[in-house]
Amino acid sequence: MNIDLVFPRKNENAFLKVAESLGYDILIFAYEKKEEVPLKKITHEKIKVMTACNEKARNADMIIAKHSEQDRNVIEKREVSVLYDLETEKRKDFLHQRASGFNHIHAALCREKKVKILFSHNIILKAKNRGQILGRMMQNIWLCRKYKVPFALASCATSPLEMRAPHDLKALGIILGMHPSEAKNALSELIKI
Predict the structure, then answer these.
(1) What is the number of domains present in the chain?
(2) What is the rounded distance in angstroms from the CA atom of residue 124 to the CA atom of residue 95?
(3) Does pTM surpass 0.70?
(4) Are 15 and 29 in contact (CB under 8 A)?
(5) For residues 39 and 34, what is the distance between their CA atoms, to the nearest angstrom?
(6) Residue of 187, 99, 180, 91 whose CA lies nearest to 143
(7) Please, how many CA atoms are within 13 Å of residue 27, restricted to the half-sphere of its CB?
(8) CATH assignment at residue 94
(9) Residue 95 has what pLDDT?
(10) What is the per-residue pLDDT across 69-86, written as a single tens digit (0 to 9) for each?
(11) Which of 20, 64, 111, 185 is buried most, with the most CB atoms less than 10 Å from its CB?
(12) Which domain range does residue 33 map to?
């Protein structure tokens, strides 16, 4: 089952057309604020549509959280299902370790609270420091594997043209250090929430 998470800007129908042509089964529309979440459920004949929001919203299917300085507090106190964009940490990398926005303490908390880590293709696509972002993602995948934290892979596109096919995202996961079976599972991990 192929799932993608995208951030629409009142262009949900365009996303659905592209998702259908790319072969997705489920499309998750993520919104920054609860006021942006549509009151009426979006439907499509071939693709199941779900919604996510950075805030608790009664018409959203899941709560997601973008990386911030308050990650530990967010994981411990809120009912977050997914944590994303960890690699956008502002601090400089250390000599023998990357400042990837994720550490062993966060990993243990994520495993305990059943919070998934989402790796976004879109931050690689738009980054000026791609090498640094890729290295941070590799370190975070290693930490997730070591501490048995479930992780997912999605395009996190903000426009329909930024979406990628499932096999492209799977290839990205393998490049980042996932085993082929892990990369395949990462494409369907978001449905297990």
Answers:
(1) 1
(2) 22
(3) yes
(4) yes
(5) 10
(6) 99
(7) 30
(8) 3.20.20.140
(9) 64
(10) 887 788 888 788 899 988
(11) 64
(12) 3-192
Share of the chain above pLDDT 70, in %: 97
At 95, list the tokens: 């000599």
Contact 64, 82 (CB under 8 A): yes
C-alpha 153/C-alpha 189 separation (Å) is 8
Residue with tokens 């908390």: 109
- Amino acid, res. 63: I
Can you give the pLDDT at residue 99? Answer: 66
Amino acid occupying residue 153: L
Average pLDDT, the chain: 88
State which H helix or E strand residue 13 sits in.
Answer: helix 12-22
SS3 letters across 54-108: CCCCCCCCEEEEECCCCHHHHHHHCCCCEEECHHHCCCCCCCCCCCCCCCHHHHH
Residues, the chain, total? Answer: 193
Residue 31's nearest CA partner among 19, 23, 39 is 39
